[in-house]
Amino acid sequence: MFYSLNNGGVFVGLLVLLLPVFFPNLFTPLGHASPSIFSEWNTPKPRHLPLLKGALQHKTKYAQRSDLWSPLARQGYKPCFDSPTTHVLPEKSEGYIQVFLDGGLNQQRMGICDAVAVAKILNATLVIPHLEVNPVWKDSSSFSEIFDVDHFIDVLKDEISIVKELPKEYSWSSREYYATAIRATRIKTAPVHASANWYLENVIPVLQSYGIAAIAPFSHRLAFEEVSRDIQRLRCKVNFQALTFVPHIKSLGDALVSRLRYPSGKYLRQKTSEIERQGDGKFVVLHLRFDKDMAAHSACDFGGGKAEKLALAKYRQVLWQGRVLNSQFTDEELRNQGRCPLTPEEIGLLLTALGFDNSTRLYLASHKVYGGEARISTLRKLFPFMEDKKSLASAEERANIDGKASLLAALDYYVSMKSDIFISASPGNMHNALVGHRTYENLKTIKPSMTLLGQLFLNKSMGWSEFQQAVQEGHRNRQGQIRLRKKKQSIYTYPAPDCMCQA
């Protein structure tokens, strides 16, 4: 009997030792935002229990609720698309410009705007931009799968010449061609935020010699300063008028918006007060960027214990090969500086402190939440009427976009632009793009004060009333008020005054 048990123990021990050899995926990240089974199984517990109890018990005052849902007053600026000069296309193009854009949807969107501007500066014909396969999201969606190409060309037809494909004599100029060797027609040296003169001095000679130039990489490759007013206006015309999503994205987006504004029977219940009725037909979009990449990149502590810290450190090393290191700051220092993304629990507490309550319809715009449903359970407890793409649309309706990160992001972007209020849990490209677009349309957009919130959440002795007062005072002027662009700031985040005229 002892021999049998002993042999059994040895067998189990060998099995445990050999598991990493035969099943390495059990011990390493399975892919984007997927936890490894043996390293991240700890379910994070609420980190702000006293505040959470206060949030669950709070009642919103009538005046606060009324002010919260009221639209923004006009602020003295209005959109203006047209350049101050008459549009006249030159008789002859200098040649063809190709650009290869990396990053996610919103980074690519800004790159497209810059590509149009560069083509205008060079008097070149723009080839519909090539979107690189995203190394994180593994998405190969093309420009025409995301944006309405015919609309894009039509809106800009008086500004620049645009072609969908190169003529046959230039068909050799492909992405594969530039991947194999150094090519004379590829511009690799464009500095970040290059001036208009840089393009005139360095790209025009290539166009004159070969009739074509391919600029790659092309991300943040045109400066925001020392650019003519016409070019600035053109960038905004591309961003806010020419770039519209393909019809099936807009159709599905409209369906989601309708279901949020006019919910089905599962939401129907007797409204007990005028405060509850104030939110009828309205909804908030929360961009909850709390994926594994964000968590790993920030180097902050999110309450998952030692296992989570080790797993994120390993993921950081695998994904960025040492280019993003563990922070030399402590978690407390990072939070004091506002450098930690808000967790779902923290954004829920922020929303509640601002005046939203358990009758608020909340649309969750996100790709994958690190930690899954366990991580957002506290947020769902505060906002039971929380929806997302999967809960609002059937599998058949999502068939054309499932598994395609750029199309999923496009749908979220579209719904976000239709919402009464938009709020993002963390700064980033989608946050910046939507802040700019909603500023342009004068729509209410709450910008969390990351530094204030980091400091408030570090104060473990703070009660709900004090927290709520501090949040409301700190966000009184962060709800869509126009901020004029400062030097070197992005025109896509701060469109006034370059792209907005005084009313």
TrEMBL record:
CDD domains: O-FucT_plant. It comes from the Eukaryota. One of its GO terms (biological process) is fucose metabolic process. InterPro entries: FucosylTrfase_pln, GDP-Fuc_O-FucTrfase, GT106_glycosyltransferase. It is found in: Membrane. Keywords: Carbohydrate metabolism, Fucose metabolism, Glycoprotein, Glycosyltransferase, Membrane, Transferase, Transmembrane, Transmembrane helix. Belongs to the glycosyltransferase GT106 family. This is O-fucosyltransferase family protein. It comes from Papaver somniferum.
